[in-house]
Amino acid sequence: MRPDAVLQVEITVPLAFEADVVRDLERRGGSVTRADSVRVIKGSVPSDGLVDYGAELRSMTAGRGTYRAYAPQSPGSA
């Protein structure tokens, strides 16, 4: 069985929801690489863990969270 692609994610949420979102990403098999002071959470998540994630994130953050997912860049590609 081929493993799912792992996508980089960048999620912007109000501070009040940050801990819930981080726990949710970890539950989906993701890992957080950075959460900075402007409440941007960066990490990686297997692609199947992002199915319906937009709707669930909006629900979890009272409609105020956003995210984007993208394939990781390999060194030297730009």
**CATH class designation:** Alpha Beta
Any guess at the CATH architecture?
2-Layer Sandwich
**Percent helix among the residues?**
10-25%
Give unreliable regions as ranges. Answer: none
Description of the structure:
The protein is α+β, with helices and mostly antiparallel strands. The chain has a single domain (6-70), classed as Alpha-Beta Plaits (2-Layer Sandwich), CATH 3.30.70.240. It is 23% helix and 31% strand. It contains 2 helices and 4 strands. The chain has helices at residues 18-27, 53-60; strands spanning 6-12, 31-35, 40-46, 66-70. Strands 2-3-1-4 form a 4-stranded antiparallel sheet, covered by helices on one side. A hairpin with a 4-residue loop joins β2 and β3 (40-46). The chain starts with 5 loop residues before the first strand and ends in an 8-residue tail after the last strand.
Features:
78 residues, alpha+beta
Topology readout:
Elements: E1 6-12, H1 18-27, E2 31-35, E3 40-46, H2 53-60, E4 66-70
What's the quick description here?
By secondary structure, this protein is an alpha+beta fold. 23% of the residues lie in helices and 31% in strands.
